[in-house]
Amino acid sequence: MYLVGPAERLLLRRVERPVRFDRYPVTVARYRRFLEALREDGTSEWNHPQQPDHVEHTPWTARLKDPAYFTDPRFDNHPAVCVNWWSAYAFAAFEGKRLPTSLEWEAAARGADGRLFPWGDDPDAAPLNCADTWVGRPVVTHQAWREGFAQDAIRRAWTTPVDDRPANRSPFGIVDMAGQVWEWTSTVLKDPGEAVICGGSYDNPLRAVRTGSKGVFRKRGGSNAVGFRCVTELPAEETS
């Protein structure tokens, strides 16, 4: 049983199926191997059965701060971003895995004690990649974000290597679940064209990158602040 939901209205929920999370978000190097395995026309045998026509698995490079992000070895250990939901699904299938549900994601980030951040309830106990980091001070209000981040720091803010902040770790040893990049999940709410994303990103203030932080994003969209990680389903008797 896990405590999930907003801090003022926590719910006790059960995760039914045992899964093993990737320790880190999917990296550029891992995603490149998937791209190299595609057919010549860019399609794949791992596509979602409902994937729309004209969806491409090539990252949306127009959104990247550095157009060489997926080809320059300097970024090999950075999270794969500008990847749409359909491509994240196909990549997970390529590795014999799947995307987590939003409940699985939050439970893995919070642990059994329902902590506010992966490392605990103290917001200053671990370094992470968020707007406060780039501004150099707490970003408490939206006005402070506009003045301190959107005016200057946004030009410097970017992804970092996925193993750069080992203290940003959940009770299960999963790294970078707060900040860095939002992460796709398999959960769909009312609009079938959208999926839930979790965790917040490098351009969100600390107050918005808690373990319960969620949003929705268009499945066909690619953002330089959205990545993903995968889970492996385990036999019922195997829980670690």
Features:
single chain; 240 residues; alpha+beta; paralog of FGE (formylglycine-generating enzyme); two-stranded antiparallel sheet; 18% helix; disordered N terminus
Quaternary organization: single chain
Task: Give helix % range.
Answer: 10-25%
Q: What's the mean pLDDT score? A: 88
Shape: globular
CATH class: Alpha Beta
Verbal overview:
Residues 15-231 form the Sulfatase-modifying factor enzyme-like domain. It comes from Streptomyces aidingensis. This is Formylglycine-generating enzyme, required for sulfatase activity, contains SUMF1/FGE domain. One of its GO terms (molecular function) is formylglycine-generating oxidase activity. This protein has 240 residues and is α+β, with helices and mostly antiparallel strands. The chain has one domain (2-233): paralog of FGE (formylglycine-generating enzyme). It is 18% helix and 11% strand. The protein has a four-stranded mixed beta sheet, covered by helices on one side. The longest helix is centred in the middle third of the chain and has 10 residues, at 85-94. The two termini are 16 Å apart.
